[in-house]
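ingest -> validate -> predict -> emit
validate: passed (alphabet ok, no gaps, 385 aa)
predict: started
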Amino acid sequence: MKKTLLILFGSLLSIFAEAQIAGMMRGPQTEPLPEGFKPASTNTFLSQYPAVNAQTRQAMFRVVAPAARSIQLDLSGKKYPMTRDEKGIWSCVSDPQVVGFHYYAILIDSVAVMDRNTEAFFGSNWESSGIEIPEGPEGDYYRFNREIPHGQVRSIYYWSDINGLERHINVYVPAEYEQNPEKKYPVLYLVHGWGEDENGWSNQGHMAHIMDGLIASGKAVPMIVVMPSGDIKTNPDVRQASGDVTEIFAKNLVPYIDKTFRTFTDKEHRAMAGLSRGGFQTCMTVFNNMEMFAWMGTFSGFFVRGNEGVVNAFNGVFKDPQAFDQQMKLLFISTGTEERNPKEQVEELKAHGIKNIVFHESEGTAHEWLTWRRALNDFAPRLFK
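emit:
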């Protein structure tokens, strides 16, 4: 009897497995997408929606929720009502979007949830849905290129005596790193912005694809890129954490990287950059540790508070322009043309006599990942030369 049951169970299991495999091979049984629409690159495996029309830059969304009373799409600051069909499938089409990466949420009966059809991206302090509105060939610099060597992004934990906790970092090493066991490398510390985490530069920013392309083409020197967390878990006050985390960067993180990887340890081979709040954290870290860094970049993150003026900002680091230029080989300030623009402050610093300063603008973009991808693509080739 037991033998018969085991045979029957095995047969049922085999049938179930075959059905699962067949289903995977066939893919989801859905109707064809409307003409011009293709599944977004940010979708999960086999998900047809969201679908993107690269020509019109519109996106189409679908949600299966027969019991819901109302559903909205929250995308780029606008809420779109979704329409229900007789099967309980809700859908809508967005307005044309700016190219690049966008967070979004689905509001089911006024409750914001993730779209199960997309990968998860940590943004605005929660795991969020995301969609990529594709650029044309001008966006190839942040896409995977199978014709070139690729580096690695390593997930690592280190201990912070200041924080009293283990902290997570992602570390990019160039493709040649393991092939040259005696070679040392310069290091770029690259920080995310408020509401995001240390995975942002890898996932939303496509940092590795950008660096692979720059290094393979000879535009950038081979370098290590360290992407740390800009938050402190034990401190819920984000603004206070900004001050504390700079000490962690300088006193815990940099020594750990120099001990763990083959790095040059002098300031001429160490750079730091960050986006938004990470740009401000870069300023606070570098300007308070000028003996450690010779290159810096702030992407949408050059903030001067109060009425002290830019020349007197950051404890007077700019007051002596000749001394600043001797210590800092590059101050790179970048922004999107559609966001708060520090151009006047940059011009004031230039007029004051600061020479090692570069101002970069991303045309047509705001406070978003396309702005910061473009910034990194312009910034990295300038380093360590």
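Residues 37-134 form a domain with the Immunoglobulin-like fold (CATH 2.60.40.10).
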